[in-house]
What does this fold into?
Amino acid sequence: MKYVETMNLARFERGIPLSTYTTFRIGGPAFALIKARSTDEVIEAAWKAEGQGLPWQVIGHGSNLLVSDDGFDGAVIVFRDETPPRIHDDGTVTVSGGFSLRSFVDFMAANGLGGLENLAGIPGTVGGAIYGNAGAYGVSISEKLISTVLLDRTGGMRRVDPDKLMFSYRSSALKSSGEVVLEARFSADSADPAALNKTITERLSDRQRKHPDPSLVPTAGSYFKNPSSHEGGRIPAGRLIEDAGCGQMHVGGAHLWHSHANIIVTDGSARARDVKELAAEMASRVEDRFGMKLTPEVVYLE
Ligand SMILES: Cc1cc2nc3c(=O)[nH]c(=O)nc-3n(C[C@H](O)[C@H](O)[C@H](O)COP(=O)(O)OP(=O)(O)OC[C@H]3O[C@@H](n4cnc5c(N)ncnc54)[C@H](O)[C@@H]3O)c2cc1C
It folds into this structure.
């Protein structure tokens, strides 16, 4: 463990289990943890950690994370910001990277701003969604993004347009740069709030049928990305996993969700190593059966 001047990290809490901050409810302690409720607080926390030579990591709602049983030997900055989004005169909207995606989708619909309604029900923050280019029903968050303000690994800030972020299916350049989304600006189509809310209601009820409710069942959603097919489309990983005969597999308290084989859930007793072992066995069976490699969508933090 690194030597850290306690004074400079006074507002960080010590040894907090990261299981408390992830929807999988798995993970050992962070050496230091701070809750950042504004972009300024994220910047300050990152500067402090950086100044101490301490590795640091920003997380949002922890809905796409599997944290090691040994935790994270550095500073975790939990970025959850309730500052309301701002609508500009030109109809574009600026929102904090720590704002809840669900609340943002609702905000847009309530203001007759269309384009993100298909993302209704995806848990997490706006920043977490941009990091992984989250999407559903054929729509990805990057499609309406027009600019971002990023914090880099040395504490510098810059405004970056989406074409520099190399968005692709469930991926962005942020995965390699490690930059933090402080703010994002979105365009929108003018739309009838009632029509937007109808789409939201439909998406939510469809999700309710297929997905576990992460407030009741520990999970991080789809574990693997859907691999690309020779024809250029995507093959549902869940179908491959099911057809490879993995449906009833379990390791420790980790098993597959009954109505969606690509979703690993736990009974609350599973450890990260159980989930990793189960996922490795699923990927191995799919590769043996179909010759296709599955890549995790869930981020492993260690
Ligand atoms: C039940 C369920 C259903 C889901 N359905 C979908 C779905 O339909 N489509 C989909 O795409 N995903 C889905 N997910 C996955 C997850 O909700 C998304 O990936 C979400 O966008 C993650 O946001 P988060 O704030 O929780 O990120 P976290 O899990 O906290 O972090 C994930 C990664 O993002 C990085 N990150 C977080 N905040 C920032 C930031 N401000 N700037 C830069 N990087 C950041 C973290 O460092 C980490 O590497 C689902 C998850 C669950 C549990």
Summary: Residues 41 and 49 are 12 Å apart (CA to CA). The longest strand covers residues 72-79. The pocket of flavin-adenine dinucleotide is lined by residues 23, 57-65, 79, 97, 122-125, 127-129, 131-132, 134-136, 174, 180-181, 211-212, 214, 219-221, 299 (CB under 6 Å). Residues 272-290 form the longest helix (19 residues).
